[in-house]
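Tokens for chain A. Residues wanted.
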């Protein structure tokens, strides 16, 4: 079986066939696809290299130093830096990646670190090398340093000044914030309804003023139910919707409960089904603003409805 020994530090000169080797240690540099190895190399055991290994189409520095990161000049081929314990490939396809205890895993793109996996955290970097987001093991949640943050139940979006602009809690409640971080619009799933809190018109971007709730004057012996229940109230939101809420009791049957002022009245009479102390009932709202009890019990009446004006 003719073969020539590999000189220390030199290339493999000629190998026709080697068999029955358990461990092979190669000291030197192997250049693939340059004529020294003309066929396939099948490795059934461990291979130990004690020098650098590079592909024939490697166009980076020779020798390369990967101790400080990848070779930015390389556009083709691969290089294994023995002394740095690092390797650079143009593409790599794996089922899994593993790091030894105390070591990190890093993914690079365009010669910049983009992902770093440590023993406890996962860090994402932008194209300037700044941490853009990371998994904080100590708080058990994702944090996005620039414009996004999420926990298992809460999602937040931030603008470029790190001001919170949107929040979703529990997948049901939504909140939008103005440029000063003040609550502007929210969807309250417990009601449910959209509520304007500040002075932001999201459609036109023009500042608007949203009024507070108004308390009507109850008549015909109707009074607020009291306790933890919402008192009778009304208001109009910027889209022209009048909202009426409250729980009232002990008034006269088939009588007016209160009157809505001009600007809060429908163009024609409206009928609303409501819950009462004896079951379903009916409330009528007239074009004159009269909110009338029409049917149902008077022990208590839930007046919760909305309409456009």
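Reply:
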């Amino acid at each position: 079986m003719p073969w020539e020994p590999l000189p220390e530090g030199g290339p493999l000169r000629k190998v026709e066939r080697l068999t029955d080797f358990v461990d092979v240690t190669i000291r030197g540099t192997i250049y693939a696809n340059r004529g020294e190895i003309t066929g396939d190399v099948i490795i059934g055991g461990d291979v130990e290299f004690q020098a650098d290994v590079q592909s024939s189409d490697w166009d980076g520095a020779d020798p390369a130093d990967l101790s400080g990161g990848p070779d930015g000049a390389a556009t083709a081929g691969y290089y294994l830096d023995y002394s740095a314990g690092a390797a650079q490939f143009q593409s790599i396809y794996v089922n899994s990646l593993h790091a030894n205890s105390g070591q990190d895993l890093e993914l690079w793109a365009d010669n910049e670190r983009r992902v770093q996996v440590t023993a406890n955290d996962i860090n994402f970097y932008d194209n300037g090398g700044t941490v853009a987001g990371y998994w904080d093991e100590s708080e058990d949640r994702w944090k996005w340093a620039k414009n996004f943050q999420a926990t298992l139940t809460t999602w937040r979006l931030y603008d470029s000044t790190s001001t919170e602009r949107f929040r979703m809690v529990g997948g049901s409640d939504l909140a939008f914030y103005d440029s000063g971080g003040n609550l502007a619009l929210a969807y309250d799933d417990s009601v449910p309804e959209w509520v304007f809190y500040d002075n932001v018109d999201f459609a036109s971007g023009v500042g608007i003023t949203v009024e507070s709730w108004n308390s009507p004057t109850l008549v015909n012996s109707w009074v607020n139910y009291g306790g933890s229940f919402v008192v009778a109230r009304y208001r109009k939101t910027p889209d022209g919707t009048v909202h009426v809420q409250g729980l009232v009791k002990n008034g006269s049957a088939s009588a007016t409960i209160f009157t809505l002022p001009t600007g809060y009245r429908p163009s024609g009479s409206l009928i609303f089904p409501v819950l009462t102390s004896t079951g379903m009932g009916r409330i009528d709202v007239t074009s004159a603003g009269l909110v009338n009890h029409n049917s149902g019990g008077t022990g208590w009446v839930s007046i919760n409805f909305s309409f456009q004006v």
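Residues 76 and 297 are 83 Å apart (CA to CA). Confidence is low (pLDDT under 50) at residues 1-23, 31-39, 200-207.
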